[in-house]
Automatic annotation (TrEMBL):
This is LLM class flavin-dependent oxidoreductase. One of its GO terms (molecular function) is oxidoreductase activity. Keywords: Flavoprotein, FMN, Monooxygenase, Oxidoreductase. Its EC number is 1.-.-.-. Pfam families: Bac_luciferase. Residues 35-360 form the Luciferase-like domain. PANTHER family: ALKANESULFONATE MONOOXYGENASE, ALKANESULFONATE MONOOXYGENASE-RELATED. The keyword Signal does not apply. Residues 1-24 are annotated as: Disordered.
């Protein structure tokens, strides 16, 4: 089979899961607005605030959340990956000090779920990772989950993380070149037409083979970026692309800029003869009334963990990420790429506006996950169905 770039050495490519009409990915893509849950696998979840809440990083808590989301019809769940020193980002909350590995955690979640897609975030350029490892690990997780598993492939923007692994951070665009070779090799191994011998710029294999074949051609692949190099990589290899807001966390400021941002991702895929779905991460704060929602929103910010926010902002500034560039420090107390706040009717209207920009789905974070996820399911999902943004999902 031909590769997407004729300047690259020939490698086999498997069929994509979105081309299988019965795949879990195709079922998720059939929803007008995909719903995802960003799991709080780390201390403090996504919000740097000391306002009391029940959100917890433990596996049992995240398993309950995932089962709760699955019962509500959510399409995907996955977690963040970061590598941090002792104390995490510090502050009163010791933000993200405890951090469950998202790849191992989501593989384990496959055993306690039956429908929801599960993505494990992986820094493939850290340490002695080789495409043979990932190809076998993901094929195994694919079989455990019956085709519901995938990987969110990240290259790492922080300057201190590679040093933990005894290496230095490569230039921004060069990391995507290396990641592309990595995933092309994985694709060839998943295609599995024969033993693979390959000599590339970064990796070499001799008579390599991985079996069994993934259930729907290959596992689901995702990536996150805000740069042209990242968009091109996503357009070639990803099924789901996570973007950040190009204009900060305020929805009213982001809406005018999002259409061009989303279109750039989708055009990158179209230039390679592919289609992708674009997802963004809002923190949703929904209460019975608008006044209650904004009072809660303000209380979260009033309890901002300033020291942890300063540490997080400094780390991000030292990296070379092209995402989160316009987000306010105070907004980190709430977290998320966007803040969607209001009554159930307000939230539904804001999600309609967000979908109109070309965004295909949302990967939601909450402040107090368990009760807020339950209320979102009770109050907002029926309105999304009425608005044509969600198709009803059969009970488990």
């Amino acid at each position: 089979m031909p590769t997407t770039n004729h300047d690259e050495p020939f490698l086999w490519t498997p069929e994509e899961p979105q081309h299988h009409p019965d795949s879990p990915l195709s079922r998720a893509f059939a929803q007008p607005l995909m719903l995802g849950l960003f799991l709080p696998l780390q201390t403090g979840g996504w919000s740097q605030s000391t306002l009391p809440r029940s959100t917890d990083w433990t596996f049992d808590y995240n398993a309950r959340l995932t089962q709760q989301a699955e019962a509500l019809g959510f399409d995907v769940a996955f977690g963040l990956s970061q590598w941090l020193p002792k104390g995490g980002f510090g502050g009163e909350t010791r933000y993200r000090e405890n951090f469950l590995d998202p790849f191992v955690s989501t593989t384990a979640l496959a055993a306690v779920t039956s429908r929801i897609l599960l993505l494990g975030t992986i820094h493939i350029l850290y340490g002695p990772w080789h495409p043979m490892h990932l190809a076998r690990f993901l094929a195994t997780a694919d079989h455990i989950s019956q085709g519901r598993f995938g990987a969110n492939i990240v290259t790492g923007y922080a300057d201190n993380e590679p040093r933990m692994f005894g290496s230095t951070r490569a230039a921004h665009d060069k990391r995507y070149v290396q990641s592309a070779e990595f995933i092309r090799i994985c694709n060839a191994l998943w295609a599995g037409h024969d033993n693979l011998t390959y000599q590339g710029e970064f990796y070499s294999l001799e008579q390599a083979y991985v079996s069994p074949r993934p259930r729907y051609g290959r596992p689901v692949l995702a990536s996150a970026s805000g740069s042209p190099a990242g968009f091109d990589y996503a357009g070639r290899y990803s099924d789901i692309v996570f973007i950040s807001s190009p204009a900060g966390e305020k929805l009213a400021e982001a809406l005018p800029k999002l259409p061009a941002h989303v279109a750039a991702v989708k055009q990158a895929a179209a230039s390679h003869g592919r289609q992708v779905r674009v997802i963004i991460n809002p923190t949703i704060i929904v209460r019975p009334t608008r006044e209650e929602a904004f009072a809660y929103y303000q209380a979260i910010m009033d309890h901002a963990d300033i020291e942890a926010i300063r540490s997080f902002s400094a780390r991000h500034a030292a990296g070379d990420s092209q995402s989160w560039l316009e987000h306010s420090a105070r907004g980190r107390a709430v977290g998320g790429h966007l803040h969607i706040v209001g009554s159930p009717e307000d939230v539904t209207e804001q999600l309609k506006q967000l979908h109109a920009t070309g965004v295909d789905g949302i990967q939601i974070t909450f402040y107090d996950y368990e009760p807020e996820l339950a209320y979102f399911g009770e109050s907002v999902i029926p309105l999304l169905e009425q608005a044509g943004l969600r198709r009803p999902v059969l009970p488990l």
